[in-house]
Design a protein that fits this description.
Arc Repressor Mutant, subunit A, mainly alpha
Amino acid sequence: MKQNEIQKLADQAKRHEYDAFTQLMQYCMKDMYKTALAILMNDEDAADAIQDTILACWEKLHTLKKTQYFKTWLTRILINKCYDIRKKRARLTSLEDYDEPAYEGGCNLELKEALAALDEKYRLVILLFYGEGYSVCEIAKLLKIPKSTVTTRLQRGRERLARYYETSMNDREGLR
């Protein structure tokens, strides 16, 4: 879906056209799932965050000032909902109780394991940059951090992924 189509649907959704809003949510669903899973590391919590985000978006759609930034606005709401859920869950369980994430079929098993091994701050920035195509500036605005921090986290995340793959390659060669 092109940016102008998203903007047109967002304009229609702002006028409370249910079908347009539904189409927007269906278009953004896969990216929302990946983002929520990168933060929460749990399918059930990711689903809860997405559900809360959809409801909040519908209720707050009138506050969206520029419809061309709909997806960025939606992602910011999702990130906030994820953090809310994580805070709530932290009071009830420890992080060790979370299951390993079960990404959709688009990712291979090695990539899932490598991403799960990263700290959240690196995993989220890498997912937003490479997975969803946000620029460094957009990520900085979404996460409310300086651009230099985003750049640093991208670099360190890539380094950690490279080390992960080197280590796993060495382990596999040691088995031969």
